Amino acid sequence: MARGYAKAEERNREAREALEPLAEGERPTVVTVGAVVSGLIALSIVLAYGFGAEVDGEKPRFAQAAAPALIMGVMSWGMWRARYWAVLGFQLILVFLIFSAVFGLAVQASTVAQFAATTGLLAVSGTFFVFMVKAMARIQMPHRLPPD
Fold it and tell me: What is the distance between the alpha carbons of residues 62 and 59, in angstroms, rounded to a whole number?
């Protein structure tokens, strides 16, 4: 067991050493895409509320629209600035989407269209999640000082 742990730790060390820290102002492409998506979601919530969108025949209360718009807007700003907490929050939303899609496939999808849409949601959110893992590793890397 100790040998297995040592091998795993060696692989982890090699993976960490292979990562390049972000340059000043650099942002991984997947994080940029996530920032834009979050910003568009926030904007769509604000516009839909402003134009009087209804949910189940009723207009939502202000707080019901403002809270998710604010969360997505702050997350968009944070990812645009390559902040670890924002990427982590976006990944949390992706995890909820992945679980919802799996549940939808297992229990609720009853037509070909529902199956296709749910599979598409699972593919997009899962792919996004995987690409963000490496981006998060680069974001959290400490800035290394040059050797003396």
Answer: 9
- The three-state secondary structure class of 55 is strand
The structural domains of the chain, with segments of one domain joined by +, span: 27-140
- CA quadruple 89, 90, 93, 98: dihedral positive or negative? negative
Q: Supply the DSSP string of 16-40, one letter for each residue.
A: HHHPPPPPTT---HHHHHHHHHHHH
Cβ-proximal residues to 95 (8 Å cutoff; 6+ apart), any chain:
129
Q: Tokens standing for 62? A: 């202000």
The whole-angstrom separation of Cα 102 and Cα 108 is: 10
Write out the two tokens for 48: 């839909």
Q: Phi, psi (5° rounding) for residue 27? A: -145, 125
The Cβ of residue 80 has, within 10 Å, a number of other Cβ atoms equal to: 17
Q: How far is Cα of residue 106 from the mean position of the Cα atoms in its chain?
A: 23
Q: What φ, ψ does residue 97 adopt, rounded to 5°?
A: -65, -40
Name the token pair of 119. Answer: 């599979």
Q: What's the pLDDT tens digit per position in 8-65?
A: 888 877 777 777 767 777 788 999 999 999 999 999 999 999 999 998 889 999 999 9
